[in-house]
């Protein structure tokens, strides 16, 4: 495979030849020295080309390169970076050391967007950045992950703000030859493959070809699919034009390309894949393609489904109902007609996998849930919310028993931590602190950093941000042809001494960017306090079809233009990973006030925390578990109140905390606010070891990938013997479960109850269960009751033991529970099917309750 695609980069002077290789490995994006090396080549061009090294090296004057190739000091820096790279690539990895036996098979990670770096614009926001960070940590940890996504010719969009605060969505046309990507090649015996890989798939009534591109991300590969080929019809060429662009037809077509095309690409590349990770429902069609493969091999439908389920992991990312893609059934029939036609007898089964019968649509989240044995949300609270949301699929069980877990999101440390802070931390933390970042002990040394040192680096980063923000505003005004004095005025905007609050994220309405504007007079008093001023920076894009989101941008803009807020509340344009780095590294406080519980996790606050920026947030998403009472601030409210009341309470809490705690703490003790710095340290020390993607990816490996590999192996050995057995068993149980009935429950409450209760803390409960054709040992009979604890009512489940087989269909069970419970609503008895081969306790939605 050619690592260096652009011919210009293959002609670099010999002494700096490997810069080409480095430019084609996104490893540079999380290595401060590599970035500094590229910046040194030409700092202005480096910025102008959004830190894209391929473009830089292909467009810069050859004479400049010749000059550097002979510059000993540059060469030294170059050699140091290359050495570091070689060392890192060859270093033994966590995965190899922990799971050497699972190296052979890839874990395929499918995502509609990947945010690796500003130079590769195939992301829109948090979901993409998370996917990028996931891949980077997988590389650092040596996890055999391979990413699958789409390559968007126009990216997402560049945001411009006009003089009325309107968002203008400028679409670009990217020249793939100038991005850090290269074609993937057809496998061949010769060492220099030359034929670019193009795969073919059926889409609706036609055939579409997809070119496969390769992105090197440290040690791992990501493959991106591109429909912009001459062989495709003009409208099909547009299918991969834009991320989240276009109508429902384009959306479903994109998802077919991603899911089905992605599996085909992996096969064409010859990558043996053990686990498929669906990162958000967009990619769930991959399960249908994999089902087809199993059916083609002759496996019965239900056994095929078992194989797929065993080897699929699904992460859901949003509790907002509209965030789950769903398509009208005729649209599903049309776009998947090739598959449905080939397996006409299973048309019903296939449709059923994503059917939302209430709305008569095919729901991608349902498809993912039904085809993945391991499913989860992205924070503890989001797991809880998802269990409630999808409870209806799992029979009559408590929400806490719904088999949906969570792994809380994190961020990639080396991507988001400021180089200046990295250097400072390195002086006080053990040498292994980066590679062992998920170990809390490694971070104890944060306390040893002298307050002056941390504060002085922080102030430096704040000044960098202010400089960058002014340039951003100046460019906005220049482009909007504002008068020269207004352009010049920007020089005086923002102060390095004022308490600085950052608010940047997608402008989705539930994120309530305007909440802090609820009482402008009160805000005015804070912002314009002569002794203790506050300033706010906003940034974020709204989806081009999201009118209310764009209205929020206008509102922020309007406020920023009011005389009393001019230069103190600013709206920066084109929020991307570059601007995000400046913001999360340079503000004092990171504000987040979503409508709870709509923020599934949120990650920008985690980026801020790494950098000693203190979180000030609603207890939603990750902050619900991250906040410990003294590592930031929580915006309070009554979770049970209606939205309007919550909004009022949130607003009041924001102002009150600012007035009474945040501002006084910041301005305490003049030039060096010791207590503030203490809080920064607490925030770093308690949050950085947990909310990083090394911890997150290790969790995914330990709790989802490896268990999936083990279970899949078990299922497919001996011509899928186990998968067939489990599928048959489930079919049998589903057919005969009607016969299972609990016919009698007794807790002896008829006899001398009062005396017995006083004397004994426990009582015996018996239940008589009739099983019909189902074998009683294939079930669990349980008592369920609720117990009051200081934090509310908790479900308790007590397994009942079979004590007597009454006849071949009826069994008497018994168990002992606390006697203060009375019969009736206080406890119930239930029976449900179990099997050692199930991935989880409630695998079938069959629960019979008495
Ligand atoms: C981290 C990041 C996000 C996600 O921020 P949230 O607070 O999780 O919404 C969005 N956009 C960019 C550019 C980011 O870097």
UniProtKB/TrEMBL annotation:
What are the DUF3417 domain coordinates in residue numbering? Answer: 12-120
Recorded GO molecular functions are: glycogen phosphorylase activity; pyridoxal phosphate binding
A Pfam family per the record: Phosphorylase
Top-level lineage group:
Bacteria
Name the Enzyme Commission number(s) assigned to this protein: 2.4.1.1
- Please state which protein family the record places this protein in: Belongs to the glycogen phosphorylase family.
Q: Where, if anywhere, are coiled coils annotated? A: none
* Example GO BP: carbohydrate metabolic process
Q: Among its keywords, does the record have Glycosyltransferase?
A: yes
Q: Which UniProt keywords apply?
A: Allosteric enzyme, Glycosyltransferase, Transferase
Its UniProt entry gives the catalysed reaction(s) as:
[(1->4)-alpha-D-glucosyl](n) + phosphate = [(1->4)-alpha-D-glucosyl](n-1) + alpha-D-glucose 1-phosphate
Listed name of the protein: Glycogen phosphorylase
């Amino acid at each position: 495979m050619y690592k260096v695609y652009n011919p210009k980069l293959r002609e670099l002077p010999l002494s700096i030849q490997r810069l080409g290789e480095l430019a084609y490995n996104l490893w540079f994006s999380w290595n401060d020295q590599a970035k500094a090396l590229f910046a040194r080549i030409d700092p202005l061009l480096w910025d102008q080309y959004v830190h894209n090294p391929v473009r830089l090296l292909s467009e810069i004057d050859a004479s400049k390169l010749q000059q550097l190739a002979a510059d000993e000091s540059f060469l030294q820096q170059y050699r140091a970076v290359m050495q570091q790279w070689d060392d890192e690539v060859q270093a033994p990895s966590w995965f190899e050391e922990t799971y050497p036996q699972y190296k052979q098979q890839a874990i395929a990670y499918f995502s509609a967007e990947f945010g690796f770096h500003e130079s590769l614009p195939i992301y829109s926001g948090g979901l993409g950045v998370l996917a990028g960070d996931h891949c980077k940590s997988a590389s650092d940890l040596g996890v055999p992950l391979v990413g699958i996504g789409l390559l968007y010719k126009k990216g997402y969009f560049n945001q411009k703000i006009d003089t009325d605060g309107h968002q203008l969505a400028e679409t670009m046309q990217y020249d793939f030859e100038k991005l850090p990507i290269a074609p993937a090649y057809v496998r061949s015996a010769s060492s220099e493959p030359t034929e670019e890989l193009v795969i073919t798939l059926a889409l609706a009534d036609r055939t579409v070809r997809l070119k496969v591109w390769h992105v090197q991300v440290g040690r791992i590969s990501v493959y991106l699919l591109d429909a912009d080929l001459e062989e495709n019809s003009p409208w099909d060429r547009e299918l991969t034009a834009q991320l989240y662009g276009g109508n429902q037809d384009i959306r479903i077509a994109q998802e077919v390309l991603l899911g089905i095309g992605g599996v085909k690409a992996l096969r064409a590349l010859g990558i043996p894949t053990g686990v498929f990770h669906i990162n958000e429902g967009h990619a769930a069609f991959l399960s249908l393609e994999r089902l087809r493969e199993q059916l083609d091999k002759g496996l019965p439908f239900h056994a095929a489904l078992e194989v797929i389920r065993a080897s699929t992991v699904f992460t859901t990312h949003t509790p907002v109902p509209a965030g789950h893609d769903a398509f009208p059934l005729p649209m599903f029939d049309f776009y998947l007609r090739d598959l449905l036609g080939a397996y006409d007898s299973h048309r019903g089964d296939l449709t059923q996998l994503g059917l939302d019968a209430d709305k008569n649509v095919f729901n991608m989240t349902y498809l993912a849930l039904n085809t993945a044995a391991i499913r989860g949300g992205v924070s503890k609270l989001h797991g809880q919310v998802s269990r409630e949301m999808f409870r209806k699929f799992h029979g009559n069980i408590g929400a806490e028993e719904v088999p949906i877990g969570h792994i809380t999101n994190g961020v990639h440390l080396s991507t988001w931590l400021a180089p200046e802070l990295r250097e400072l931390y390195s002086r006080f933390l053990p040498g292994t602190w980066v590679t062992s970042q998920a170990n809390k002990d490694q971070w104890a040394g944060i306390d040893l950093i002298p307050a002056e040192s941390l504060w002085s680096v922080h102030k430096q980063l704040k000044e960098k941000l202010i400089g960058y923000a002014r340039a951003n505003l100046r460019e906005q005004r220049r482009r909007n042809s504002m008068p020269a004095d207004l352009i010049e005025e920007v020089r005086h905007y923002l102060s390095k001494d004022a308490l600085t609050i950052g608010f940047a994220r997608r402008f989705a309405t539930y994120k309530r960017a305007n909440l802090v504007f609820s009482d402008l007079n009160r805000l005015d008093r804070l912002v314009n306090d002569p002794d203790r001023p506050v300033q706010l920076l906003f940034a974020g894009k709204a989806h081009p079809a999201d009118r209310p989101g764009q209205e929020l941008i206008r509102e922020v803009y309007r406020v920023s233009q009011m005389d009393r807020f001019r230069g103190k509340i600013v709206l920066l344009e084109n929020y991307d990973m570059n601007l995000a780095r400046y913001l999360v590294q340079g503000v004092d406080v990171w504000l987040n006030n979503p409508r709870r519980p709509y923020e599934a996790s949120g990650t920008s606050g985690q980026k801020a925390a790494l950098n000693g920026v203190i979180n000030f947030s609603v207890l939603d998403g990750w902050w619900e578990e991250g906040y410990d009472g003294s590592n930031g601030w929580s915006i309070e409210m009554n979770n049970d109140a209606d939205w309007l009341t919550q909004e009022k309470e949130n607003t009041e809490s924001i102002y009150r905390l600012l007035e009474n705690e945040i501002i006084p703490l910041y301005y305490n003790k003049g030039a060096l606010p010791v207590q503030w710095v203490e809080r920064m340290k607490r925030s770093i020390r308690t949050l950085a070891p947990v909310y990083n993607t090394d911890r997150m990816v290790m969790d995914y490996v330990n709790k989802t990938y490896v268990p999936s590999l083990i279970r899949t192996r078990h299922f497919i050995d001996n011509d899928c013997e186990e998968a067939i057995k489990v599928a048959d068993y489930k079919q049998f149980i589903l057919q005969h479960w009607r016969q299972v009935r609990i016919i009698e429950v007794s807790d002896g409450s008829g006899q001398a109850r009062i005396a017995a209760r006083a004397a004994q803390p426990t009582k015996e409960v018996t239940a008589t269960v009739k099983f019909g054709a189902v074998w009683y040992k294939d079930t669990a009979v349980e008592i369920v009751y609720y117990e009051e604890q200081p934090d509310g009512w908790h479900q308790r489940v007590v397994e009942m033991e079979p004590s007597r087989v009454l006849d071949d269909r009826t069994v008497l069970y018994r168990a002992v529970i606390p006697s203060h419970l009375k019969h009736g609503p206080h406890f119930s008895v239930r029976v449900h099917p179990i099997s050692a081969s199930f991935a989880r306790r409630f695998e079938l939605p069959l629960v019979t309750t008495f």
